[in-house]
From TrEMBL:
Coiled coil: 23-116, 140-205
Keywords: Coiled coil
Protein name, per record: Phosphoserine phosphatase
Superkingdom of this protein's organism: Archaea
Amino acid sequence: MTENIEEAGIRVLTEGELISAAVEKHRRFLEEARKEFAELDSKLTQIEEDIKNVKNSRIRMEERKEVLKEKRQQFYHQAETILEKEIFLKLDTITARKLQEELKKLKGQIEPEEEQRLKDYFIENLREIVQATGSEENILLQVDARMEEARNANQELKEIIQSEKQLVEDDGSKNEKISKSRSQLKRLSTKIKNHEEALNYWEKLKA
């Protein structure tokens, strides 16, 4: 058999050469596995850091939402106070109640676009009332300004809610990546351990 192999021009490796080849193979595999582990571990650390930052952002968003809700109601309260002091006393009960109902709709939880429509309608009605009662034009401007501030607060609130939804979606994607990465790291850790043991075994034989 050996003669046939030699005749075919094939050289049989010695035991020492086979051991050296096994050592080299496991060293190469170990280096590749360690490199892959380090890269994946670095990516996982970054994703976890991103999630931490997003969590902090969401806390700040929640705080800002509460501030905006309060500001919006404060602006409407200020507008209402001006109306009660300067306009309602000059109106008949039906007209005053109608304005109060419109104001109640504005103060509710509505979309900024709907709020703009209702505000324009309210201000148009108020303009006619101001003119009819001989009230100062400045009252109209003050009420309009406060309602606009309230609408701006509602607009920012809507934008924050939309951003939150996107963050929740991104969060789900990142958590999935973390789960997958941890599973891969566990697999690589086992792979590294196996190659380390194999390398240690072959290096002892080589010695």
